[in-house]
Every structure is written in structure tokens, then in C-alpha cells.
Amino acid sequence: MTILVTGATGNVGRQVVEHLVKRGADVRALVRDPSKASFPAGVSVAQGDFLDVDSLRKAMSGVSTLFLLNAVVPDEFTQALVALNVARSAGIERIVYLSVIHADVYVNVPHFAGKFGVERMIEQMGFQATILRPAYFIQNDLMIEDVITGYGTYTMPIGTKGLAMVDVRDIADIAALELLRRERSAGPLALERINLVGPQTLTGTDIAAIWSDVLARPISYGGDNTEGFEQNLKQFLPAWMAYDMRLMGERFLTDGMLPEAGDVERLTALLGRPLRPYRDFASQIAGSA
């Protein structure tokens, strides 16, 4: 009984592998370049790519449970559908898929719409799946660490509705727990969606106040300008991705990323500990600044 982890060299996937190994699972990691992969002892490595069907067939042979994580790329939806079809042909029924919160609400944002399409296909294809829907990753703010600490401004377009930001470490921990629950189940488990949120819903000014506190100097919020946000992102991201992120930011401003009733309590019970707050992340950065 083997669990295949895709996206295994990324921040979430790598931690999922580590959690699974610590809990005694038989883990296979799908990577593009095995020479750049570093995993705990006992992890088998499969070289492959979502668009290389033969490599996927080889990687999924003998696999019982799949962790499906697709990067934000122009053909994300196609890659996910290829993976799902190959998985079904390989006899894999148990899946944990990393989607995004409000995928059915942010319908004009390309990578949200793509993930919602994948959710629908998982359901229509009859997989026994857990669909994880994380909110904004706290660690995304590493992108603007220098702006915060150097220029005294928090520039992410968070707005006033608030985001239930979640720590990547909590996402990986819950993903591993769900993979093991499905892997070790004696019988089929119903399809389930789980919102992955943090312990607080924070606005832009809330986050600026946290940074002001941990850095012991004023940090202002200046992130409602989504046009400027797009232009800044274009300096190091492809134009299509910068625009995708701008559209997401616009939905932050109009809709926020809000948890449903009971989400925090459910996750706390799953983990057996409190969710990690944003302040812990900011304090760690401030301590190393």
C-alpha cells in the first residue's frame, strides 16, 4: 500500500512527505529531477511530469492513495485531468486534492476556476476523495518581507473583509492525516471538503498592526491598489500570472476569505493542537531581521 505525493519538492508537498514518513507510511514522491530531490530515508522517487503520461503510469503503478497538488500554471486544469484519468486507469480510488477556499466563488480568477473544475471532475469520476480548500498561505508574505522590514509598508491587497490566513505547516499536517485516514480505511469513505483556515480572520490593517508590534516600529497598510500590485508582480512573474494574482486580490477586497462556522474547531480537533497564528510567523521573521 503506497501513497504517491505529487508536488513533492514544493513547500507543501515536501512537508507532506515528511509527515507521512514519520507516521510509518510507504511513500513515493513524483519529481521532475531526482538529482534535486532530498527526502527522508525510505521514500522512493519516481521521475515524471503531469504531461508525460507514460511517466505518470509508471509512477502510479502499485499506488493505493494519491496526493494531488498542481502548480499554478496555464495548463493546470489539463494536468490535473490527465493525472486523474491515469489514476483511475491504475485503480487508484483514494485521493486527497489540494484545491483552494471559495473556488466556487472566485469564479473569474483563473487558478480558482481551474481548481473548481478539478473538484467537479473528482466528484463526477467517483473518487473517494478529501478536497482540501486552503485559504491564503501565511508564508506567501515572504515575498514582501523586504518591503515590510525595509520600507515599513504591508503591500498585499488584503482589504477590509479579512482573510483567514493559514500556515503552510498546518496545511501539510492535515493533508498527511487525511491521506493516512483514507489509506488505512477498511472501506470506502465519502467525498469530503475541508476548509483549511487559520485561527483568525485578519484585515490589511490588522496585519500591519501585528508587524508594527513585532518590529517595534510603525508599519502601514498600503495594499488596496491591485493595479500597482499587478505591476510589481510583473517584475518577477509572467504577465498572465501577475494578472491572475491581481484578479485574486480584487476578490480579496470584495469578498474576503472567510471561514465557515465550525472550521477552526474542526481543524483544531484534527490536529490535536491549536492552529498556528500569523503573529508566530511575523515574530519569526522579526527575530531574524
Brief rundown of the structure:
The chain has 289 residues and is of the alpha/beta class. The chain has helices at 11-22, 53-60, 76-89, 110-124, 145-151, 168-183, 204-215, 226-233, 239-255, 263-271, 278-288; strands spanning 2-5, 27-31, 44-47, 63-68, 94-98, 128-134, 153-154, 192-196, 220-221.
Task: Provide tags for this entry.
289 residues; 7-stranded parallel β-sheet; 11 helices; two-stranded parallel sheet; alpha/beta
Account of the 3D structure:
The chain is of the alpha/beta class. The protein has 11 helices and 9 strands. The protein has helices at residues 11-22, 53-60, 76-89, 110-124, 145-151, 168-183, 204-215, 226-233, 239-255, 263-271, 278-288; strands spanning 2-5, 27-31, 44-47, 63-68, 94-98, 128-134, 153-154, 192-196, 220-221. Strands 3-2-1-4-5-6-8 form a 7-stranded parallel beta sheet, sandwiched between helices. A two-stranded parallel sheet has the order 7-9. Helix 3 links the parallel strand 4 and strand 5 (94-98). Helix 1 (11-22) packs across helix 6 (168-183), helix 3 (76-89) runs parallel beside helix 4 and helix 7 (204-215) packs parallel to helix 11. The longest helix has 17 residues, at 239-255. The chain is globular, with a radius of gyration of 19 Å.
Give the N-to-C terminal Cα separation: 45 Å
SS summary, helix count: 11
| Biggest sheet architecture | 7 strands, parallel
Strand order within the widest beta sheet: 3-2-1-4-5-6-8
Poorly predicted runs are none
Task: Bin the strand percentage.
Answer: 5-15%
Instruction: Sketch the topology as an H/E string, one letter per element.
Output: EHEEHEHEHEHEHEHEHHHH
From the alpha carbons, calculate the radius of gyration and give it in angstroms: 19 Å
As an assembly, this protein is single chain
Q: What is the approximate shape?
A: globular
Report the count of strand segments.
9
Mean pLDDT: 96
What structural class do the secondary elements suggest?
alpha/beta
Helicity level, as a percent range?
Answer: 40-55%
